[in-house]
């Protein structure tokens, strides 16, 4: 059992990512930068402005 654990750890530590995996990670980062971050910023801005106008 210990030999199998060592082989699994060796595989995980020495595995090189394929171009497909790198592309997928790149697309996730691009989606976060182009879609998620501006949408989150807009929602935070609207909620802050709405809270201020309701309290007056």
Descriptive labels:
56 residues, mainly alpha, 89% helix, 0% strand
* Radius of gyration, CA atoms, in whole angstroms: 22 Å
Helix and strand composition category: mainly alpha
Largest sheet: none
Shape: elongated
Number of helices: 2
Q: What string gives the helices and strands in order? A: HH
Question: What is the tally of beta strands?
Answer: 0
Describe the structure.
The protein is an all-alpha fold and 56 residues long. The longest helix is centred in the middle third of the chain and has 37 residues. The chain contains 2 helices and no strands.
Q: Topology of this structure?
A:
Layout: H1 2-14, H2 19-55
